[in-house]
Each structure stands twice: as structure tokens, then as C-alpha cells.
Amino acid sequence: MKNRSDKLKRLVTVQRHLEQMAEMDLAMTTQQRQEVADTMDAVAGAINSLNPVHRGFSGIYAAQIGKLRHKDTMLAGVQQMHEMRIVRERTKGDRLEERMHEARDLETREADDDAIYDLIDQRIAYGDEGGR
Length: 132
Fold this sequence. Notes:
Elements: H1 4-47, H2 52-56, H3 58-130
Helix pairs in contact: 1-3
């Protein structure tokens, strides 16, 4: 039979894994936002370019900037959601870890108490035999 602290340790491990997954999701979203920002910079540079080829596509570029801004806004919301998820998962993990330590302390205390009771029982048993 597993101790309560062992079960909680396993839950802590799972919870930390969930936290890492949330951090990876945040990193991917951050990377996507950076790619969108780089693309927006490139499109803005093309709009402001004096090159006659780009002037003909200025309307398309403007529409593309609008789409990229919308995508960046959506990714900002997703990024905020992932940040909140990380905090939530980390908090859960910390609480589980605290409970695991408390359970381990209680198990250690119980084992120490049992050892003392065994010593007392032995002392009483030997004391009875020695008095006969």
C-alpha cells in the first residue's frame, strides 16, 4: 500500500508536467506573436518604400496589415490566457507539494511514535520478566 505522501508526490509530478506544458504553449504563442510582428514590420516597410513595385500593391499591403493586427490581438489574448494558466498550474503544484511535505512529516512522526511505543512495550515486557 502506498503512503499518502507517495500519492501526493506522484500528483505533484503530474502537476509540474502540466505546468511545463502550459509554459511551452506560452512560448509557442510568444514566438507566433514575434513572427507576426516581424511580418508587420516587413509589410510596413513595403508600404513606406519608394520602390514603384510596392506602390502598386499598397492597398493589398494595407489589408494585410489589418489582418496581421487582428491576428496579433487574438494572439495577445491567447498569450494572456496561457500566462494565467501557468500561474494556476504552478499554484496547484505548490499546494500539492506543501500537502506532500505535511503528509511526509505526519508519516515520519507516526513512525517515530510507533518506535517509541515498541520500546515501551519491550521495556514493560522485559521488566515483567526480570521481576519474576
